[in-house]
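Quick one before lunch.
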Amino acid sequence: MSGKMAGILSCDNFSGISGNMEMLLHMIQNGKPEAYALVYGKARMDCICGNVLLYPLWGGTLVAAEIAGLPAKEGACGGSFLGFHIHGGEACSGTADDAFADADGHFNPAGCEHPFHAGDFPPLLENHGYALSVFYTDRFTPEEVVGRTVIIHAMADDFRTQPSGNSGMKIACGKIMSA
Ligand SMILES: [Zn+2]
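Model of the zinc ion complex:
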């Protein structure tokens, strides 16, 4: 990112709690997202549901995702990281082998390698089947991804393997709509 975005935390004049967290929580609480996706699993994974909300922020997007019904890795050493991306395809349809094949590959308008695709996200942390994640990306604005798809994978993203981080089967999908 070049230059300083108004409002974004800067270390040049850092003096403690910036107030941005409070502003962001307020935005989520009271603001209307510009775009959203309702995410569902299919077939064996039809217990998965959730929503991904996209708010315009600092020239990019604040992403807020809440997902339930994820396959849970239980036990004292349980909890999984699950690959999470925006894909370039425009439909959550697919085949018997790949339930969401039409979501296609990662959203990648600039032709970069993984994990430098615009649609590459931090993985979801599954807690007894539940995940809640809020993060910022300046790789796209909400309106630039309307019509694309959000995908959750069965495995963690290794952030190395091409073209998709070896994150396994697509287990849930949602088409991004204008709010
Ligand atoms: Zn990618």
